[in-house]
Design goal:
The chain is mainly α and 379 residues long. It has 18 helices and no strands. Helix 3 packs parallel to helix 5.
């Protein structure tokens, strides 16, 4: 019976070790993710390690997909990620990425995209963004957008107040850029990119709603209506001055911070990295996290966003689920220690019982010998 109880305790130890071994990787990752929830770069590293462990060909597959889609920038981002994670990429793939980048950065292609950005005001790469920013720096782009949306507002027609607010803010920031000898250029580029993302439908729904509310606050509607009534793109100087008068600088703090963060992303990960971030973001905090990610990961940012989505920016896995893994691991540790304690106690008790029985046998043997000794003497 006692041997059975000892065997049961040993079985408990073995069971706890087996379950604990199975739970440990999950518990370890859960703990690491909870600790890294405020650090986008570290959080993405943890998730990427898990992804690549399960599928080493993931990066190569995405490089091929990006090249097939004509996105050399994304393919280059995955190549940079492969180098950082020490994932082997074939020489053929690396050569194809280099050739695609060379073609995309060629002078004719750059000039064509620059002109497209300047004329249309839409950007999706460095060249077109340069053209778009150039147009906005010469106030043409912002005046065009402000006058168009402002006239919709005056006529009572559907108005994109976000584009209107960004254009109005852009005119004020452009003036500040000239006064500060270019130090406000990242903010200027950030406003332009948010405006372009909005027009192209590449702004996250939550972020668009927030930015729309913020844009309403920065525009003095009566003053803008008066400015638009007498505006003309043929008189850019007068029109810009009139529209800037409708800008409430004291209400623009949120939009300016957003533009700064977008500018930081653009500087570190490129125009498309910023556009990808804006599409995923549900609010300005997401954009701020994306800026921190871009500053830490640079050219790898687009690949990380492609693989992890919004999970690269914040902890999407339920905190309850992660805590449950940790709790399960702790319960297994408690079970293991309890089993060890029970095994030790029962083994000690078994040893003490054996000693007691041995001493009893020795005492009984001694008594029997003592009883036999007088009889032997009498004989």
């Amino acid at each position: 019976m006692k041997a059975g109880r000892l065997n049961l305790a040993l079985a408990g130890v073995a069971f706890s070790v087996a379950i604990g071994g199975a739970l440990w990787p999950h518990a370890r990752q859960a703990g690491a993710m909870l600790a890294a929830q405020d650090d986008p770069a570290l959080l993405s590293d943890i998730q990427l390690s898990s992804l690549l462990r399960n599928n080493e060909a993931l990066i190569a597959q995405n490089i091929d997909a990006a090249l097939d889609a004509g996105d050399a920038d994304l393919a280059s981002s995955f190549l940079a990620l492969a180098q950082d994670k020490q994932v082997n990429v074939s020489d053929e793939q690396a050569r194809r990425v280099a050739d695609a980048l060379a073609a995309e950065n060629s002078t004719p292609h750059f000039a064509k995209r620059f002109a497209s950005g300047l004329v249309t005001g839409q950007a999706d790469d460095v060249a077109s963004l340069s053209g778009t920013v150039a147009g906005d720096l010469f106030v043409f782009g912002d005046i065009r957008d402000a006058v168009r949306e402002g006239k919709h507002l005056v006529m009572g027609e559907a108005t994109d107040r976000l584009v209107l607010g960004l254009a109005t803010a852009g005119l004020a920031v452009t003036a500040a850029t000239y006064v500060s000898a270019g130090t406000a250029t990242p903010v200027r580029a950030g406003l332009t990119l948010v405006k372009d993302a909005r027009k192209a439908g590449r702004l996250g729904e939550g972020l668009a709603a927030w930015a729309g509310r913020s844009a309403r606050e920065v525009v003095d509607t009566p003053a803008l209506e008066q400015a638009v009534a007498s505006s003309s793109v043929l008189r850019p100087g007068e029109t810009a001055t009139a529209i800037k008068a409708a800008f409430r600088a004291e209400k623009a703090g949120g939009l300016v911070r957003l533009a700064k963060d977008v500018g930081r992303i653009t500087e570190k990960s490129g125009t498309r990295g910023a556009l990808d971030s804006l599409k995923l973001a549900e609010g300005p905090k997401d954009v701020a996290r994306a800026a921190r990610l871009a500053e830490a990961k640079g050219g790898q940012t687009r690949a990380i966003l492609k693989l992890l989505g919004r999970g690269a920016l914040l902890l999407l896995t339920g905190t309850f689920n992660l805590a449950l893994w940790l709790l399960s691991a702790l319960m297994m540790v408690f079970g293991f220690l309890s089993s060890i304690k029970a095994t030790t106690e029962r083994a000690t008790q078994s040893w003490l019982d054996r000693r007691k029985r041995r001493r009893l046998r020795q005492a009984q043997a001694g008594s029997a010998a003592a009883e036999l000794s007088p009889a032997a003497s009498c004989g």
